[in-house]
Amino acid sequence: MTTSSVMFVNEGIFGVSDDAQVPMETVRWSNGLAAPMDHGAWILTGINTGPVRVEAHCLDTAPPVEATGWEEIVEISVRSTAGDLRINSGYEVTPDALPVLNPQGPGWYRMRVHASGRSTNPDGVGDEPVEGYLITVWPQEPAESVVIRSSKMIDEALLANADTTSEETITHATPKPDDTAESDRKSDTRARLLRSLQDD
Fold first, then answer.
1. Which of 12, 105, 110, 170 could form an S-S bond across to 147 if both were Cys, CB 3.0 to 4.6 Å?
2. In the prediction, which pLDDT does 189 show?
3. Domains of the chain, with CATH numbers?
């Protein structure tokens, strides 16, 4: 099943979780895009507040990696405890167009997160969606988190969380860094956002 929606986010995150208490004390920010917890996960956006486009695929088995059009791709394992794994923002708890991601019920799933546009307006506020996300989920036993397509933002996050990223594996070559002052400013802003999320 594949569906899409425009969803409002605040504080630079949206969730993939059951209708259960969020175990924030177990969050692993690691790669800076998808942050697994004891159950469920957070997706970190570039924008702080505003709409983003989200597309969801619910599959029976792992699909081939489709990287065309996506700037960042990571995979993590996510656990469902209640069998009602959904994308939510805390405002639109269940966007109407987005499905339950685990029709097979409680258990472990693999989640591949594609993102584009996160560096467009980092920590900013917007009225029109400039970021896109594709969330693909299928049943699979837990495995190491993997960075399939990296970015400067992901590299910054891995560096900032180096003591908690021993399980991360970068499987694609890291893009050459952009040495412009604007790119450095965006990276610094993102690093500060990640640190503030950890402090919370």
1. 170
2. 46
3. 2-199 (2.60.34.30)
Residue 123 tokens read as 């920590």
Element of type H or E holding 192: helix 181-199
Residue 19 has a CB neighbour count (10 Å cut-off) of 13
Distance CA 84, CA 19 (A): 7
Structure tokens at 20: 């259960």
The span from the CA of 118 to the CA of 45, in Å, is: 6
Q: In the structure encoding, which two tokens stand for residue 37, read together?
A: 């917890």
Higher pLDDT, 182 or 163: 163
* Separation CA 18–CA 70 (nearest Å): 27
Q: Report the distance separating Cα 98 and Cα 52, nearest Å.
A: 13
Residue with tokens 């605040």: 10
Q: Give the pLDDT confidence score for residue 123 in this predicted structure.
A: 94
User: Angle formed by the axes of helices 181-199 and 152-160, to 10°?
Assistant: 40
pLDDT tens by residue, 34-70: 999 999 999 999 999 999 999 999 999 999 998 999 9
Q: Where are the beta strands (DSSP E) in the chain?
A: 2-9, 13-17, 34-36, 41-44, 50-58, 72-80, 86-88, 107-116, 132-139, 146-149, 169-170
Tell me how far CA of residue 169 lies from CA of 25, 35, 36, 143, 146, in angstroms: 23, 15, 15, 11, 5
Tokens of 182: 């604007």
